[in-house]
Structure prediction request, 238 residues.
Amino acid sequence: MSFLGKKVWITGASSGIGAGLARELAAQGAHLLLSARREDELHKVQAECLERHGPIDILIHCAGVSQRALARDTISEVDRAIMEINYFGTVELTRAVLPSMLARKQGQLVVVSSVAGKIGTPLRSSYSASKHALLGYFDCLRAEVYQDGISVTIVCPGYIDTEIGSKAYTGDGGRYGKLEGVLHHGMPVQECARVILRAVARREPEVVVSRAKERTAVYLRRFFPKLLFRLVRTHIPS
Prediction:
């Protein structure tokens, strides 16, 4: 599938994977609608590739927030805020766009979940829960709308070189505010964007975008869960 002339809405487009996808799609001739919570950063991306368009061909959900806190230290307001942004916001926007896709019998929904939606690791309990929820909801929706000509692609990134960690919630609702080496040495954003778009173009139902280490972890979770659980608990901070 070519993206030339396609009308694509990207949420979370002001930074990270969303911004990377916007730049790649603009270079391939797509017509873009970009939205984000940080208006000042969004304008930087907008200046490069935003154009006016009509009905949506592809909706890409990239908006999200992470977490860096033990479950026992996380207040319920943080749990709810993460679910509102990562899960409920995604579902509600899908609900708003879906009727027009159903009416035209075409469209594609692309949901950026995470490897954390498959594997739970320390300090990310609510974040991981929200990403697991996305997998469950959109797996169901994929089956429901298949006969209507609508496809659903779920993207599960591993470590990508973004600032998601520094913007993550701490247990009391503050921001983590630190750059993480494991992310800084992760896959470059533009490489990640290109991998995602190849999967979208092929209408793949799911793609894990990561280096070999995270893909191995997904394999272990499926076939050797006890081994993975032992490995994960060695990373609990003291």
The first strand starts at residue 7 and ends at 11. Residues 61 and 90 are 7 Å apart (CA to CA). The mean pLDDT is 90.
